[in-house]
Amino acid sequence: MNAETTPVRSALVVGGTGIAGRALCRELIAQGWDTTSLSRSQSILQDGVKTVHADLTDPRSVEAALVGLGPTHVFFTAWSRRPTEAENITVNAAMVRNVLDPTGASGNLRHVALVTGLKHYLGPFEAYATGATRDTPFHEDEPRLDTPNFYYAQEDELWQAAERYQFTWSVHRSHTVIGHATGNAMNMGQTLAAQAALCRAEGRPFIFPGNEVQWNGITDMTDAGLLARQMIWAATTPGLPSQAYNTANGDVFRWRWMWPRIAQLLNVEPEGYADRPRPLEEQMAGKEDAWRQLAEREGLVETDLSRVASWWHSDSDLNRPIECFTNMTRSRSAGFSDYVDTLASFTTLFDTLRNERVIPN
């Protein structure tokens, strides 16, 4: 009798230098996958990850980068921010199509996992949480909002490619992701760490930048490692239907509880909501030189504040006019039981940022 062998699994991580992509590459390597990262960035990845580089908006660039790869699984974690939602739709849908056409045509592709987010329920940046939204907790089977949204366009490209090339798929609607990636456009944990470092250096309190709804309301978040494990689970568990999954840690909290605990972890004096929002773009305006001096004095790896913090994104999340959390029943019922304590996730992130000299000790 022939000995049973495990089928070879080769992963292409699109956006492997981002928050979700870095965690996913780490998890795939730990599980023994042949792993390749595709990104525009030249950032160094962890040991064992092969890297290829391309402009995802250019189909010829992507096709050239993927010559000879033929992955069995594609994990799509990348996106490109544009000035309008119409441009977001055009560019981000094309990025999905540019990757799935050559990988699907190889004949090897079995599954594609796409990361989107809660703008699926809240609306696009141009009308974020301001028009009609879904009731919390958000459920995956709720219909799309009646507004253009690049997440919907990405899903449409995924579904069309799945029908054309006959692979299974999953969509992972994560909330705000906690993880480490320099130069990422949406990075709340690292942003708060940078805010705290500047506050401590200047002897100022660590002021909550959001509104009263977020200060008092219920919310949740998504650990990058948990997102990675859910994506791999959906891609490899036999018998799962092709469908979307909410992705969150499993606990819920209020910022009025979390803020002082984050402040304690970052060694600053917390100050909560009082009278009005005090957004980070207002609090941190003109702090580029202060960060550069701090980075040089403390020997930090990145002197460009814009590559460490994304004030606009954290302001957007922390000033929603509605509370925001997800229902995890679909994946729990299907067998995904992973859980991460959100405070522990912040703790791990801040330790990592200190060890890698992104923020001072």
TrEMBL record:
Coiled-coil blocks: none
Ranges for domain PRISE-like Rossmann-fold: 72-360
Matching SUPFAM superfamilies: NAD(P)-binding Rossmann-fold domains
Transmembrane segments: none
Domain of life: Bacteria
Pfam families per the UniProt record, alphabetical: PRISE (PF22917)
Signal peptide: none
Protein name: SDR family oxidoreductase
